[in-house]
Input
Amino acid sequence: QVQLVESGGGLVQPGGSLRLSCAASGIIFRLSEMAWYRQAPGNERELVALITSGGSTNYAASVKDRFTISRDNAKNTVYLQMNSLKPDDTAVYYCSALELRRYWGQGTQVTVSS
Output
């Protein structure tokens, strides 16, 4: 049974930082492509960042140079460091794993507001 458990969301002021974590089980983590998506109210789910099994990364243009995705294969965990947060970053953030098919976590709310 695949489980992706996100943590680290919350309320932060504009310009602040948060780090999201996603602990994975039930997959061969070191061979899986991992990603973070987000969905704001009324919007479609969009890719924020991904990291391949080899460590290559890709970012949405809107978060490039502010967000950093990383992975710790020893802990089966993927992270998203979010800096210089803006109100437009407010969304539910989902962890996703790609291993033959795509799996999703339950999501964690990030709210950027003063």
